[in-house]
Amino acid sequence: MGSNPSQYYGVGGNYPVYKTTWFKTIEYCNRRSILEGHTPCYSYNNGTDYGTNPAGWPAGWDSADNNHLYVLCNWSANGFRLPTDMESMFASMGGILSAGYTYSGSNNIDVVGWYVTNSSNLTHIVGTKSANELGIFDMCGNVYEWCWDIYATLPNGNQTNPHGPTSGGTRVVRGGCFINQATLCTNTSRTQIVPTSTGYTLGFRLCRNAQ
After folding, report:
1. Residue 168, in any domain of the structure
2. Which of 36, 93, 104, 114 could bond 141 through an S-S bridge, CB–CB 3.0 to 4.6 Å?
């Protein structure tokens, strides 16, 4: 990406990257997909189709919050992407191996997560707390994680791989962060942030379709 947006709260090595906007995370997904020979998931189309290579996207595409509506996802592509709201929650809960914990892997957040009581108001190297049932680390606390979905009230009834609404002004973030109380770092914790936000608590986690 040419630069590291993180500073002051834990930088480099295996620390989570933070201060990244939703837009820059989308760009990173496609650039990494191209670099590693995968089909990028995202394209930019504001009435003109600019394709999947961020190098060809128009100037200012990531500077206005409303532009997030022009980012489209090819759900069958094998490149890197943000998890959906429901994918993130399902993974945090331990998937089909879930033991029903409050936090990702435990009912005791100190075992699995960095939050206001134990973080010293800093991010921490990933994987230094215990993993959840799927072997995934840090899904509660440390940094918020951007999701694909536009924020809305969760739908009622059974859902199969929902991708969220098609309109709205904010995107979902999940998992709480290192300055949150434990009650904001549960498996079900979610909130909304505008796509251009660069808060020092905002990070991300990527996924790819199973091959």
Report:
1. yes
2. 114
Q: Which domain holds residue 139?
A: 22-204
Structural domains in the chain (count): 1
Mean pLDDT, rounded, of the chain: 96
Q: Helix (H, G, I), strand (E, B), or coil: what is residue 99?
A: coil
- SS3 for 20-72 is CCHHHHHHHHHHHHHHCCCCCCEEEECCCECCCCHHHCCCCCCCCHHHHHHEE
pLDDT band at 109 (very low <50, low <70, confident <90, very high): very high
CATH of residue 40's domain is 3.90.1580.10
Residue 11 pLDDT: 79
Contact 108, 172 (CB under 8 A): no
Cα 22 from Cα 28, distance rounded (Å) = 10
The phi and psi torsions of 197 (rounded to 5 degrees) equal -65, 140
Which of 134, 130, 129, 127 lies closest to 94, judged by CA?
A: 134
- Whether 95 has a pLDDT exceeding 80, the answer reads yes
Helices (H), 67-194: 85-92, 109-112
| pLDDT (mean) for 194-201 | 95
Indicate whether 6 belongs to any domain.
Answer: no
